[in-house]
Amino acid sequence: MSRRILIIDDEADIREVVALSLETVADWEVVTASSGAQGLASAIEHQPDAILLDVMMPGMDGPTTFRELRNNPATARIPVLLLTAKVQSTDQKRFADLGVEAVLFKPFDPLTLSEQIAAALGWGECPEPNPGNP
Predict the structure, then answer these.
(1) pLDDT tens track for 36-75
(2) Confidence class of residue 1 from pLDDT cuts 50, 70 and 90?
């Protein structure tokens, strides 16, 4: 089953690497947006299975974009994973407190990114066994 992922990141290089990784490794459909505002519109239009959202963007940052997604009934149930270079524990706690599904860190491994997303969302494509099942 193919998944549709929306990548919202202001850095074109990151969007390209993530898109190529998810399309090639997991055979997922990828939609991209270069800003929070564009991402909100794309989420409504494309209704992705998940959103990979950059934290630091000019204009509308990731946490603000996340709140807007949650406040819109058309996007409120779409799982969101944050993608960030901020790895300090205070930042991690603040991001986790937002209610996102997971926080993934830059730099990331393009070969395992889809596995990290699938594991965070409990998707069956995750090749790693569930620790609860022998």
Answers:
(1) 999 999 999 999 999 999 999 999 999 999 999 999 999 9
(2) low
Q: Could you tell me which of 13, 15, 49 has the C-alpha nearest to residue 29?
A: 49
- CB 25, CB 111: distance < 8 Å: yes
pTM score, whole prediction: 0.88
**What residues contact 99, with CB distance under 8 A and at least 6 apart?**
66, 70
3-state helix, strand, coil split of the chain in percent (to 5) is: 40, 20, 40
> What is the full DSSP assignment across 16-71?
HHHHHHHHHHH--EEEEESSHHHHHHHHHHH--SEEEEES--SSS-HHHHHHHHHH
Domains of the chain plus CATH, in order, are 4-121 (3.40.50.2300)
Owner of token pair 């998707």: 123
